[in-house]
Specification:
alpha/beta, two-stranded parallel sheet, 6 helices, about 35% helix, binds S-adenosylmethionine
């Protein structure tokens, strides 16, 4: 099982936000029975969330073989085989290769928009759009540029560091994300402040 200290830390506040979307009394019209996670990483998130939502089925996905193995190890370790499916390969840069999975009620993805080329963000919206029914949620967690501004300075420095590392990486701006969302049949619903200057952006399928 790969360790991921940042995911181990942020899984708690993310869980609290997920509860507000998944608990049926909050959104009675969109009962969530099945969640697709994109760019799942180590499996820390999906295994943690699955333990807190025993009535929800989770479908993790990844491209890195070592992460696929780690996700499987987390599923086994926490005995989650009845609610968490084996990870599948979804390459966000090739959304056309991703078959539609039936009966996905929500798509969730964290910490990928700034450390992948922007085509992966386009790909994620394309995939979410094809999977989800109207009124369903696509939630994205991570650091973002908000209406053209990155703050505080530590985030600005991190964005520069990412762009130096790979010219195709870097914080995505909310205006660009809203435009990509609209082009894929989503409306931007809300931006939720998270610890350490991160956000959850909630998009709703139209
Ligand atoms: C920083 S990790 C985040 C992992 C996890 N979502 C989390 O928050 O703990 C970014 C993930 O994006 C995945 N990734 C990068 N490019 C991708 C692509 N083209 N398609 C799917 N996943 C990709 C990486 O393999 C990595 O696991």
């Amino acid at each position: 099982m790969l360790s991921s200290p940042s995911s181990d830390k942020n899984k708690f506040p993310i869980l609290e936000v997920l509860k507000t979307f998944i608990e049926p009394d909050k959104h009675p019209k969109t009962k969530i029975k099945s969640i697709l996670e994109l760019a799942s990483g180590s499996g820390v998130h999906v295994s943690f969330f699955a333990q807190h939502f025993p009535n929800v089925h989770f479908q993790p996905s990844e491209i890195e073989p070592k992460n696929m193995e780690s996700i499987k190890a987390y599923i086994d370790n926490y005995e989650l085989t009845s609610t968490v499916r084996d990870p599948i390969v979804i390459d966000l840069s090739c959304p056309e290769k991703c078959d539609v999975i039936k009966e996905i009620d929500m798509v969730y993805a964290s910490n990928f928009t700034h450390i992948s080329p922007v085509k992966c963000t386009y790909g994620a919206f394309d995939i979410a759009s094809r999977m989800l029914k109207p009124e369903s949620w696509f939630l994205i967690y991570g650091p973002f540029s908000i209406d053209g501004e990155i703050s505080p300075e530590s985030n600005l420095n991190f964005d520069k560091h990412l762009r130096n590392q790979n010219s195709e990486w870097g914080y995505r701006d909310t205006s660009q994300l809203k435009e990509i969302a609209e082009n894929n049949g989503f409306s931007f619903d809300q931006r939720i402040a998270m610890p350490s200057n991160n956000w959850i952006l909630a998009f709703r399928k139209i």
